[in-house]
Amino acid sequence: MPNEDTINVDGSSGGKDSGIHWGGGGNGGGNGSNSSGANLSSTPEAQKPAAYGVPAVIGVYDGMWGFTLFTKTTLQEAMQAALTRLEQGAVAAAPLAGRLLGATIGALIPSEIAKDDPRMMATAHLVNSLPFDKVSTTPPAALPTQKATVVHTRIADIVDEDGKQHIAVVKSKNMPMSVPVVDAKPTKRAGVYTAGVVPGKPDLHVKVDTGKAPAVSQSQSKGIQKEQGPSRFPGFTSGQSTHEAVVRFPDGKSPPIYISVTEVSTPDQVKKRQEEEKRRTLAWALNNPVDAAAKEDKDAGDELNRAQGDIVKAQERINKAVQAIPLRKSELDDSNKRVENAKKFVQETLKYAHDQSHPGHRVFQQAGYQLGLAQEDAKKRQTAYDASLKEKVDAEKALSVAVESRKQKEQKKKASEQKLADEKKKPRIGAKDYGHDYHPVPKTDEIKGLGDLTKGAPKTPKQNGGGKRPRWYGDKKSKIYEWDSQHGELEGYRASDGSHLGAFDPASGKQVKGPDPKRNIKKYL
């Protein structure tokens, strides 16, 4: 089979047998077939059924991988909730001006993804998909004229202080984000298309199915822990292990779809990325003290709000406990009364205890049996009553902790407000004045994700007048990249007219800032 990403557009599975019978959502088999028995060498798209907004784990088998996307399913709850949180998160007012907000929807647990399949773990990736109109306002009809399109929403991986890799929905209202647009090309197989999504990786085979989806397509894959993270800045390395594309189909045979593919990182990779995130955050804070103080103030405000929410929850817990105590006490009292009555009846029938021939002996036995039941019930009622008393004590302790936490958060918020006010009053000074150097110039082979680069002669003067910016040429010398030592980013320009293309992360090639129409290096070409 040719080495190409395969996309199959098929709407027949709603009423007919598609020939692929889904098993328990297995991740594939070691002999080129999955748990359902489908041959992944001829139908690699059978590896995993998926739905919009549901992360699915896929891996490479014999140079093949893929999934089937059921497009008639509704957007999954976790994804829709994340989009709503971001929409309500005042993205435009985020302290990190021109940056992003993100909300996590899942945490990756590599050890659980493919315990019984080492080959899967070695090539494991997480694939997510969304309808194109959920990520962009660009009319689908405009896509054939573009090699990339602007989006307002992406699905990307981030790393957190918990030492885990997370999948997040990332959104921006004031920073253009660009995603490649790729054509779905016909193959020799009827209804099958090819498209390149992940550079340097084997085929990604995708079947777009408009039929009825199996339930397993909407279930969470193993190794992905569901989350509903709050909206926040996703970090400077967000999307570092993620590739994405908007796939368009010829002749309008299917609406365009957004696909995001994330490589599952090892613990060591996550640790290194955490270190990079800390370094870049510190560098950003040193160069942007007002914005850093504003972010700190916002974070403090969010913590204070959560602390207040904890108080409300603790108070509600106390109220429930207070209401439960008299009910449990009443139930215990009634049960104890039944025990006393049962004991009296046993005493009344005790005279028949040793006369087995008398009819009263059976009455005595029944009285003893009823006493045992009453005592068991009283024991349960006592346990429930004791638990209600303990719950009240525990709830009061939780309230005390929450109140103390709120006091600390209030102090932190006041301090952050004062720090922000002080920073706004300070005369601005550069990072060197703080005793820190600017970002060192990377070596050409250290720059990733921008294709083959050629070192060029510096021509553009630095803003501080201290020499000229290091320069590289890319994309057959049609693009120019220059080193921004203050922010540790590569500024991209069009070689034909010097127009600005945006700023790019040197570690991944991901765009981190949109084009600035005011910037131009035409006179330094």
From TrEMBL:
<keyword id="KW-0929">Antimicrobial</keyword>
<protein>
    <submittedName>
        <fullName>Colicin</fullName>
    </submittedName>
</protein>
<feature type="domain" description="Colicin E3-like ribonuclease">
    <location>
        <begin position="440"/>
        <end position="522"/>
    </location>
</feature>
<feature type="compositionally biased region" description="Gly residues">
    <location>
        <begin position="12"/>
        <end position="32"/>
    </location>
</feature>
<feature type="domain" description="Pyosin/cloacin translocation">
    <location>
        <begin position="10"/>
        <end position="284"/>
    </location>
</feature>
<dbReference type="GO" id="GO:0043022">
    <property type="term" value="F:ribosome binding"/>
</dbReference>
<keyword id="KW-0044">Antibiotic</keyword>
<dbReference type="GO" id="GO:0016788">
    <property type="term" value="F:hydrolase activity, acting on ester bonds"/>
</dbReference>
<dbReference type="InterPro" id="IPR009105">
    <property type="entry name" value="Colicin_E3_ribonuclease"/>
</dbReference>
<feature type="compositionally biased region" description="Basic and acidic residues">
    <location>
        <begin position="404"/>
        <end position="449"/>
    </location>
</feature>
<dbReference type="Pfam" id="PF09000">
    <property type="entry name" value="Cytotoxic"/>
</dbReference>
<feature type="region of interest" description="Disordered">
    <location>
        <begin position="494"/>
        <end position="525"/>
    </location>
</feature>
<dbReference type="InterPro" id="IPR016128">
    <property type="entry name" value="Pyosin/cloacin_T_dom"/>
</dbReference>
<feature type="region of interest" description="Disordered">
    <location>
        <begin position="1"/>
        <end position="46"/>
    </location>
</feature>
<dbReference type="InterPro" id="IPR036302">
    <property type="entry name" value="Pyosin/cloacin_T_dom_sf"/>
</dbReference>
<dbReference type="GO" id="GO:0003723">
    <property type="term" value="F:RNA binding"/>
</dbReference>
<feature type="compositionally biased region" description="Polar residues">
    <location>
        <begin position="1"/>
        <end position="11"/>
    </location>
</feature>
<dbReference type="InterPro" id="IPR036725">
    <property type="entry name" value="ColE3_ribonuclease_sf"/>
</dbReference>
<feature type="region of interest" description="Disordered">
    <location>
        <begin position="212"/>
        <end position="242"/>
    </location>
</feature>
<keyword id="KW-0078">Bacteriocin</keyword>
<dbReference type="GO" id="GO:0042742">
    <property type="term" value="P:defense response to bacterium"/>
</dbReference>
<dbReference type="GO" id="GO:0031640">
    <property type="term" value="P:killing of cells of another organism"/>
</dbReference>
<dbReference type="Pfam" id="PF03515">
    <property type="entry name" value="Cloacin"/>
</dbReference>
<feature type="region of interest" description="Disordered">
    <location>
        <begin position="404"/>
        <end position="475"/>
    </location>
</feature>
